[in-house]
Write a structure and sequence with these properties.
Blueprint lengths: L12 H4 L26 E5 L4 H11 L5 E4 L3 H4 L3 H10 L3 E4 L1 H9 L3 H11 L3 E4 L10 H9 L4 E6 L10 H14 L3 E4 L18 H10 L5 E4 L3 H11 L4 E5 L4 H8 L7 H5 L16
Parallel strand pairs: 1-2, 1-8, 2-3, 3-4, 4-5, 5-6, 6-7, 7-8
Helix pairs in contact: 2-4, 8-9, 10-11
Length: 289
């Protein structure tokens, strides 16, 4: 073979074959991920109406990386096979969550008893409490959190879905603190499934000042940042680390996000470069954190 000489130390395939047994991918020194049930590094996925077979396939492929599946847009109310989907998630140790707008409507229509009975009958173990569409009135949101937290894991969303609504970090932080004090397990920072409101400008750019201020007032471990786009997910992992909690992740992005968290992508490869055994393990800090 003419040209470059083969690099010493790289074996031939036949020299390392293991008799046809599957070799597990465990040979790289990568950033360690927290184990389920996770309090850090949560991945919260939005289901916009997936067929049951598609959800089962997703759970088989990536269930180990998913912590919550949210049935957004009221899809649980109008879809078949919801009970089967909840069972599939439960078997994969993934919590199922109802979207907040559904609860807002049940509240203003005086149908909370029916809502709880329905959610219980389907086996949901988490609910989202929000005021993103309906202004419930003083103290109502906190009262809902306190009541529902007796039987469900509560995710409390902060921020408006209205792109013209003012976004003030101090206001968000006060509401987050109140929601956590009322019994919420996590607070969700609004970004919508479009990634163009709340945490983001109309063009999807991250409002860095807002996030920086929030993190001076509220623990990052208690916030799930909605980050539907790949660019937004990259920003959070690079700036807040692999254990940032991210929400409204699309099913197609779950594996890609996990590779970001593990330093397997060029965007975050510096995380793996610093692991023990790397030729660059003495490199300086990666990113801004």
């Amino acid at each position: 073979m003419d040209g470059a000489r083969a690099l010493p130390g790289v074996p031939r395939r036949e020299a390392v074959r293991n008799g046809g047994e599957l070799a597990l991918a465990d040979f790289l020194a990568l950033p360690e991920r927290t184990a389920k049930p996770r309090r850090r590094g949560v991945t919260h996925v939005i289901d916009r109406g997936l067929p049951i077979a598609t959800l089962e396939s997703l759970l088989d492929l990536a269930g180990a990386h998913i912590d919550f599946v949210k049935f957004g847009w009221g899809t649980a109310y109008v879809s078949r096979h919801i009970r089967a989907k909840v069972v599939a998630c439960s078997e994969a140790r993934v919590r199922c969550c109802l979207g907040g707008t559904l609860l807002e409507l049940a509240t203003v229509q005086g149908k909370l008893r029916e809502f709880v009975r329905w959610a219980d009958s389907l086996g949901f173990d988490a609910v989202e409490v929000s005021e993103g569409t309906v202004d419930l009135g003083p103290g109502i949101k906190e009262g809902l959190i306190a009541a529902l937290a007796r039987d469900f894991c509560v995710l409390a969303e902060v921020g408006s879905k209205d792109s013209t609504a003012p976004v003030r970090a101090a206001t968000w932080a006060v509401q987050m603190t109140r929601d956590l004090d009322a019994g919420a397990s996590f607070v969700i920072a609004e970004g919508r499934e479009s990634g163009t409101v709340g945490l983001y400008g109309p063009d999807g750019t991250v409002r860095e000042g807002l996030i920086g201020m929030l993190l001076t007032l509220v623990s990052a471990e208690r916030i799930i940042f909605e980050a539907p786009s790949g660019a937004q997910q990259k920003w959070f992992v690079r700036h807040l680390g692999i254990d940032v909690n991210l929400g409204n992740v699309t099913p197609d992005d779950v594996i890609a996000l996990e590779t970001l968290r593990r330093g397997l992508r060029s965007d975050t490869a510096g995380l793996a470069m610093r692991r023990q055994g790397s030729r660059l393990d003495t490199a300086g800090p990666y990113g801004t954190c």
